[in-house]
Design a protein that fits this description.
The protein contains 3 helices and no strands. By secondary structure, it is mainly alpha-helical. The chain is extended and about 55 Å long. About 0% of the residues are buried. One of its GO terms (molecular function) is P-type potassium transmembrane transporter activity.
């Protein structure tokens, strides 16, 4: 019983600690600002968009978004 309480408290503390950094990171990503993970994420994004034939500058339609979502899911599932 005590170990469950400690585990739950650890979970809550972890969530509280990552809320601010994760929120600011997501804010920067959605506003197309530079982030500290650009060096890791940008090469993958370029390859992914190149394979799909898309541009990161234009808006996606619902059909294009669905295709992107399904193709990404298939790529991830193929790793397993």
């Amino acid at each position: 019983m005590i170990s469950n309480f400690i585990l739950f408290a650890l979970f809550i503390v972890t969530i509280a600690l990552i809320t601010k950094p994760l929120g600011s990171y997501i804010f920067r990503v959605f506003n197309n600002e530079r982030t500290y993970l650009d060096w890791l994420a940008k090469p993958f994004q370029r390859v992914y968009l190149l394979v799909l034939g898309e541009s990161s500058k234009k808006e996606q339609t619902a059909k294009a978004y669905f295709f992107s979502l399904v193709s990404f899911s298939v790529m991830v599932l193929s790793l397993f």
